[in-house]
Design goal:
Layout: H1 2-42, H2 47-52, H3 55-75, H4 77-96, H5 105-133, H6 139-170, H7 173-194, H8 216-236, H9 239-247, H10 252-271, H11 273-276, H12 282-292, H13 294-304, H14 309-338, H15 344-373, H16 375-393, H17 405-408
Length: about 425
């Protein structure tokens, strides 16, 4: 017992550092998104052009989760965490130090690509770390820790939205980015100085082909995740903020404050999800998805019926956020429950590759559908995507107590390679 206590304590300490760094990256990530969105839309970019600024952000997230999971397995989570923070610092510097003449679509897409890489490296590092520090027979503790991490991350991202809108209003685009650079640089220095060793045991023999899971439950959950997150981003990324700012007349800081409060509330619901949804399994993910589909459809009907746009969107988005948060918390628990114990970084990387694919799909369609037919088209598309997520979730295992099931054969055969 004495020999195992010290490594366990060191892992928990390192996990706290990983989580803190993830929070710092998440704060700046939320702020960057709002800064870029409003700065370029105000300069005359169309909704499709604004959406295109985030294409590489999401596209490189797909690649990063695949390669990042493999790198974490081979080099350890400290390596991927430091890489994420350093990359975010470079992305911010590209935007902060560039003259206005250089801030064109291609250049901003490149900076956003680096920001997407940074965000997914830090996310994968933090999410994978949970399974390494929670005892293998503690499914309830795993669920609570995952919910707390996911919820706190989204609450902090909400603060980032508010911070982005506030900084854009008060100090302007370039000065705001300089403030964000200082936040990321501080987190990078703290990890370099304070983290000792690696979180987990790197496997220098890990093969890249192992990233493609043979675990059926992981694959089904990843497929459902694509549609779940596409259903959110198809109206949240471009359509809602542009609708509120330019059709409803809200100011930058009002839109930023609302989106920030929404994401904070969304995160708080995620963090407390174990109080409301107990012992989740595949059936839980199914009925939550079907319940969620009613809300974007209801908002679309309300808008078509002439209900005030601000009232319909604000009220609808609040209810949508509550149910979506429970969906996301259950998914975040299930991926760790299904993941093979010796390949957790690879399984998590594969799963968040699917998550990035869903965000990419939603981001593209958010600009295209909004420019084509307005917010209503985005909402109907959202409802269809959620129904697809629910149909896929029906194939997930219904057995309770699935924590670490993939490693034990409960949730499907272990991954190979």
């Amino acid at each position: 017992m004495g020999t195992s206590a010290a490594p366990r304590s060191a892992d928990v300490r390192n996990y706290v550092l990983v989580t803190g760094a993830y929070w710092a990256d998440t704060l700046t990530d939320g702020a960057i998104r709002l800064l870029v969105l409003f700065y370029f839309y105000e300069r005359g970019y169309s909704p499709i052009a604004v959406a295109s600024l985030f294409l590489f952000y999401e596209l490189f997230g797909i690649v990063t989760n695949l390669v990042g999971g493999w790198l974490a397995a081979r080099r350890g989570l400290r390596f991927t965490l430091l890489g994420g923070l350093a990359t975010q610092l470079v992305a911010l510097a590209m935007l902060a130090l560039a003259p206005q003449s250089l801030l064109v679509v291609a250049y901003v897409m490149a900076a956003q690509a680096l920001s997407g890489i940074a965000k997914d490296l830090t996310k994968m590092s933090s999410k994978s770390a949970i399974k390494l520090v929670v005892p293998q027979d503690a499914s309830g503790q795993l669920y609570r820790w995952v919910a707390l991490l996911t919820g706190s991350k989204n609450a902090i991202k909400g603060v980032g939205f508010f911070l982005g809108g506030l900084l854009l209003t008060t100090v302007g685009f370039h000065a705001a980015l300089a403030v964000l650079m200082a936040i990321v640089a501080t987190a990078l220095v703290l990890v370099l100085v304070s983290m000792r060793g690696e979180l987990g045991r790197p496997d220098r023999q890990a093969k890249f082909r192992g990233m493609f899971s043979n675990n059926r439950s992981v694959n089904v959950l990843a497929s459902a995740r694509i549609f779940l997150f596409a259903s959110r981003d198809v109206w949240f990324v471009v359509a809602v903020p542009v609708f509120l700012r330019f059709e409803q007349g809200w100011s930058f800081w009002q839109v930023g404050a609302f989106l920030g409060v929404w994401v904070i509330g969304y995160g708080l619901v995620q963090a407390t999800a174990p109080r409301y949804v107990r012992d989740p399994d595949g059936q839980t993910a199914t009925w939550l998805a079907f319940a969620l589909a009613a809300f974007p459809a209801g908002i679309a009907v309300a808008l078509a019926a002439g209900v005030d746009g601000s009232v319909a969107v604000v009220a609808g988005l609040i209810v949508f956020g509550l149910v979506f948060a429970l969906n996301s918390a259950v998914h975040s628990y299930l991926i760790l429950a299904y993941a093979d114990g010796d390949k957790v970084a690879m399984n998590v990387g594969f799963y968040y590759m699917a998550n990035a694919a869903g965000r990419l799909t939603g981001t593209v369609l958010s600009g295209v559908l909004y420019q084509w037919q307005g917010l209503g088209a985005c909402l109907w598309c959202s409802a269809i995507f959620v129904i697809a997520a629910g149909l896929l979730s029906r194939a997930l295992p219904g057995t309770r107590g699935l924590a670490f099931g993939g490693a034990r054969g409960v949730a499907g055969p272990p991954a190979r390679g």
